Amino acid sequence: MKIILNQDVPNLGEEGDVCVVKDGYARNYLLPTGAAVLYTNENLSIFKSRAAAIEKRKVAKREASASLKEKLDNVSLDMVVSAGESGKLFGSVTPLMVQEALAKLGFEIEKKRIEVATHAIKMVGVYTAKVHLYENESSLIKLNVRSEAEVRAAEKAAKEAAEKEAAEAAKAAKEAEEKAAAEAAAAAEAEAPAEPVVEEAQAPVEG
Asked: 129 with 143: CB under 8 angstroms?
């Protein structure tokens, strides 16, 4: 079936593009959702009249895509999953997990635009995920895949180190306070005026 895209559709085309797709895809998805309209002379004329506006939107999308790519290329995500002692994963890293991690950083990316080679991520380690942007542009995101046990151990060690540091700081502060108090007392004692010596009056000698 020949259709005209009413909006950008990943892996198919952009707004205004004329495409030939399977009848089922058109009837079940593209046409009901408004993503496309049938290719007719009337619809073609409508899109030709919108050509300038469509091109303006494409330019804006290209600029936004380039800006987003620059930011995403510097992103590194910690992906925590279940794993054995050997580092072999029990769980898997999915596009949804990547989407949620990106959302926490303020990136709103559609899940269908995120490509993760789940079958290739079998051990803890560093991997990449691809985010499809506008047109043929894409970005590679660093995935630091870690085991839950490793994360818990690291958090416990960090907590114990922080508690030890806080205890040592409190002890040092107390010792400094006691030393300062002792020095102040000693200084006050040294500066205190000596008490006057009172001589006892001698009794007159009887003659």
From this structure: yes
